[in-house]
Specification:
The protein is α/β, with parallel strands linked by helices. Helices cover 40% and strands 16% of the residues.
């Protein structure tokens, strides 16, 4: 019976799914996938769980990392994306960091884009079997841009171009950056593309401290307590040739990721961005809530913990399993049996007569 409601069965001449005596209309299911850097791998577990229960989204809209995972599903390459994600380790993550100091971002992004293209191909959004869109932000105007056609890889790259970290992406005549600046969990875009039921995945819902106010804070009251100034880095001996180059590269990575208790450039920028994203998400979801919200408990996993794909995918599976009953109930409500099917069922029951004990 569950398979019938989820849309499995043969198609009738009127486009409905024929099941037994009657037919049902399948509602258009939309999936809005939010951003969250490495935490976005939880979307893989969410999508796999939905599909395992016969729930196949017809509309997929993603922001930032949600655009990458959503694109993997929409193009039929989710398994390849999962294989790539599970294979990431700290040592090979550095291989995607084409750090540069002469651009508009610390990371050029070409290496990561090349990997995504190798994983998903060079397809166009308009050729995908399901409706797909990514959300980006125009640099100068702040316009919310929905990318609904063109190269899928370009659309994903624009959606995750975190300002200051990744360079902006030029699409058409617009320079675009991360869509989480304007629409972190794109419920509105999914509805606009025709979704009747919108399932949203928010990756920042369990970060409880984002809304806390510390109402009394300042320097230590005891003036006799001396605070040691930040220690200056020890001067390294001058190196020549390749040793000099690799020393500079190590220094850049240390400044990028931080160390010794001090946050690096990337940590400060991404944490600040994440706090802002959380506040925007709360406001957007309050004004345009999804029909169902899936909230993986991934707050304790760092934004740069890309090597923890196994844990993140498992969190996504558990979160989706918790929501399955509610999703199925919503589909039952929006897809009742056709009137003719109900009457046919009543007549069949009358012919059968009362059940014998």
């Amino acid at each position: 019976m569950l398979d019938n409601w989820m849309g499995r069965g043969q198609k009738g001449s009127d486009g409905r799914d024929e099941v037994g005596l009657g037919s049902i209309r399948r509602p258009v299911i939309g999936l809005a996938l939010g951003g969250g850097a490495a935490r976005g791998f939880a979307h893989i577990g969410i999508i796999k769980t939905l599909v395992a229960h016969g729930i196949h989204p017809n509309v997929v809209v993603g922001t930032s990392m949600g655009a990458v995972i959503g694109g993997g599903y929409a193009s039929g390459n989710l398994e390849k994306v999962e294989e790539w994600a599970r294979g990431l380790q700290p040592r090979n993550i550095f291989g995607y960091l084409d750090i540069r100091l002469n651009g508009s971002g610390l990371i050029g992004g070409s290496r990561l884009a090349a990997q995504l293209e190798a994983t998903m191909g060079q397809g166009l959004i308009e050729d995908l079997p399901v409706k797909f869109a990514t959300v980006a932000t125009e640099v100068r105007t702040g316009h919310e841009i929905w990318l609904t056609h063109g190269r899928m890889i370009d659309a994903m790259q624009a959606s995750y171009a975190l300002p200051g970290i990744f360079s902006p992406v030029l699409i058409g005549d617009r320079w675009l950056v991360d869509g989480a600046l304007v629409n972190p969990v794109p419920v509105s875009a999914a509805r606009a593309l025709g979704a009747e039921i919108v399932i949203a995945a928010n990756l920042s819902s369990d970060v409880f401290t984002h809304s806390t106010t510390i109402y009394s804070h300042g320097a230590a009251a005891d003036l006799n307590v001396s605070v040691a100034p930040e220690s200056a880095p020890e001067a390294e001996p001058a190196k020549r040739g390749f040793g000099r180059f690799f020393s500079a590269e190590r220094t850049m990575k240390r400044e990028f990721f931080g160390g010794g208790g001090r946050p690096g450039i990337s940590t400060v920028m991404v944490d600040a961005f994440n706090i802002m994203q959380d506040r925007i998400t709360r406001a957007r979801l309050a004004g345009d809530p999804p029909d169902l919200l899936i909230s993986p408990r991934v707050g304790k996993i760092g934004l740069f913990d890309f090597h923890r794909a196994d844990d993140l995918i498992a969190h996504g599976v558990r979160a989706a399993e918790r929501a399955i009953d509610s999703i199925q109930e919503a589909i039952h409500i929006l897809a009742p049996p056709a009137a003719g099917a109900a009457k046919a069922g009543e007549k069949a029951a009358e012919k059968a007569g009362p059940e014998k004990e």
